[in-house]
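Why does this matter for the project? Reviewers at the last site visit asked to see concrete outputs rather than summary tables. In response, this paragraph embeds two records directly. Each consists of the residue sequence and, immediately after it, the corresponding structure tokens. Nothing has been edited or filtered.
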Amino acid sequence: MKMSDFAEKMESYCDMTPTEIINAIVSDENIEKDWKNFFLALTGHFSSTGLGPKSLLSHVATCYGLDNDVKDLVNDSGGFPEFVYDWSDNTMSEGLDIDIFVDVLSQENIINARRAFMGYFESMNALERKWFTAIIVNETRNGAGENVTKKSLPKKYGISTSDFNTAVKFNRLSTIIDNVTDGWGVGDLLVPSPGNYIKPQLAKTAKTLRGEYYADVKYDGIRAQFHRTEDGNVMIFNRKGDDITHRFADLNVESWGEEFDWFILDGEIIPVDEEGNVLEFKEIMPRIHGKSEAVRNRVAVKAIVFDILTYNGQDTYAFGYGTRLETLQMHFPNVNITETKLVSGEEAIRKEYTNAIKAGYEGLVLKGANQVYEPGKRSWLKHKPALVDLDCVVMDATMGTGKRAGYYGSYELGVKIGDNLISVGSIGSGFTDEDLVSVHNYYDNNQQTTIMEVHADIITQDREGNIGLRFPRFIRLRTDKETPTEFKSVKEMLN
């Protein structure tokens, strides 16, 4: 299919409901062979090279004869793809094929991907440029999400709902789309397969502490999934499924469980000092964002493993947690296994919780002895300190991008220390679309006195004594208050 036809159809979908979009695609015989590309685009599951507006803005501005500083123009248009469309001239299409997406995203690095983007961009008309850009930077925003796709794929290709739902447990949706649309079905996707990222099982807050559980200490690190394939390749995925292997090569996953050819383990990566003592979460940031190996390796890390999904053809995910834990302890002696204890009843659980907090951990994760592994579900329980509730003054604000273009996307927060203010970090979570507008307008008119109530998991303090909030979320504006929380009260809340 030509890029021009693809762009026109994508544009037409903007006025449809998600169900109408899917029905239109499935019933359109003219795009049968391109069905995969449409669904990858609509659900945001094209692979990514890291290209985003920041990487491409300078090129696009130059192409349009504009100054490089065009952030205001992007905000006025409502987003980067919309800006691309608004400022494009009447350039004629050169009839490029939609396979150009694959070409750009298959480049070995971001520099090559950027060059490929630039080469194609100038050969397109305005609408082609808009949708080419939207897909490359993953800003399609048309409402055709995963749930609608999951309903339509089995129907179109005659796959049982049961098999399809099983495949979804153990594979990315993009992998399933690839297999199904290429005629392979889901037969090979019904069990965990090393190399295929699996959504991790998660925990929800425990409402009661009655019952018997394995009480794992809750680490404050990066959730990680460790894969070793049959040919010896190692892959480490974070919670979102990003491949972070190159950032943690020193974990030597290839040496784990040497008696097995392949496995999938679940765990956490935590920062440690030279003596192996656990450091605060923020110390691991260079590993996540560092550009060079030298920067990334300034802080040592270790892996803590607490689950096993499969090894050498044995699918342990269907076993109870107690059995999976025994498997780890028996077959992976050179791996750091989670600190855990089988406890029963509220009194015993609270005792373990107190011990965990005193030892510097976040709390407990409670797992039933016979509980199977359920990918993507919040079926474990967590017991951790109650949320911290603070009234903070807004010290500064930063304009948002993408969906938040035209409004402040994040705010720097402070608390009172004497007659001065001390920063406790920034907040960008918890805002509804209505909140973004109302808080923006209120802050513009009350820049010295804007106070907002925020919740955070915990309060942290680094070696220099700087205070921070772990996962702060916006709750509401405090138009009824004139002063923020006192610093001395914050100090008392430190864990």
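We now turn to the second protein, recorded in exactly the same manner.
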Amino acid sequence: MGDVIHELTIGDPVNLLWVGIGTMLGILVGAIPGLTGAMLIALSLPLTYAMQPSEAMVLLVSMYVGSISGGLITATLLRMPGTPASVITTLDGYPMARAGKPGRALGLGIMASFAGGLISWGFLILLAEPISHISTELGDFDYFALVLVALVLIASVSGKSLAAGVFSGFLGILVTIPGESPATGDTRWTWGIEQLNNGFDLLPVLIGLFAVSQVIHEVASREKKVEQISQIAPEGILLGVGDWLRHMINMIRSSVIGTWVGILPGIGANVGSVMAYSAAKSVSKQPEAFGTGSEEGIVASEAANNATIGGALIPLVAMGIPGSVIDAILLGALVLHGLQPGVLLFHNHPEIVYTIIFTMLIANLTMFGMMLLSAKWISKLATIPRVYLLPVVVVFCVVGSYALNNRMFDVWVMLGFGVVGFMMERSRIPLAPFVIGFVLAPIAEEKLGAGLQATGGSYAPLVTRPVALTFVLISLVLVVWPILKMWRNSGRGDTE
């Protein structure tokens, strides 16, 4: 651990450079409505091929931290959340900015973002290694049941429609079928197309779903007029000790909520901010102020959405299970660099795990300084016409996809999944279950296949092993409970 800290700080100045570049790019992209951290990281993956695995993870994790934080700037000053995680921030950030206190609104958001990141990092460093050790004791059926929980949970909490979440997850699983079976090695569903023998590569799929689909969306929709605060004064951004102490309980409570929401696969930072905001309002002495420029509301939202980063990284580094879409992309980055994510990552490559962990800490410190110094100017990015940004994004999409295997097939895959992503979003089908299903399905198939081989084709360990049975029961509850809830609500509607 000490060697990793030394390399990240004073041992290798290049790593600090990557932290600075990654954090700033994340903030910039996060501040531009329509551009997301997932899109930035997906586009950056091809650029990391020539880098060492540790350097690549430093850059990508820094982008992750910066992109979640950057959204608060335009959410506060322009009423345009740069990321879905900052939607709740607009409820109080923008009214406070319009009331003549844009600097203080930004300062509260930056303070809370920093606190949320630090508190969740504390949970990350405390829990990641113990969970990893526990995970090594899991058998193939235990691990399959655990992945099953993740898949079911993603589908059940994504979006307002259970059916849409299930359909999206099923579609993601379906896309993993072409190519070699992870369990048997047999080739299937290739339809004579030689390029499909290895299945769909992760990178073109991700770039298509998040970057190309967004370009199509921007082209298809009219550009909205940006409502900007006329006078943005930087005064008040740097808050005093009294402000930190006054909001400390709220920041701790919201950060804990955000961390534990982040641990749950597929829920996301926006859900964390909603839950923390609701909790803060329920215990506030002035609940009526929420939505009109409440300081408590800004703090709760930003502390929680940044805390989900540390929470989501816990299952990623400990078990190889992504807690969010961005974590799924980071999982793909590990694979692209020849690293096997999962329970053995801590044992085989501890330097990579601790690089990820301590990069989050350094990136949060960097983010805090950059946001304080540049928040006023970054907000201007949202006013740049999309006509200048979109061609650049398209070029990066094509180059990134082609560079993977030097073949046009991957470019066509990227464009195809771009259309798929656009149609899914237009139909209000969430993308998160698709991506996580696409990433987790091969793992589930591999573990189930290995388990069946060891037992001669018997599924009995799913109910005879306590851990596997527990996870299976949790999966059943997660599936049945929303259905019962919908049935109960429909029954009430009929009686009324």
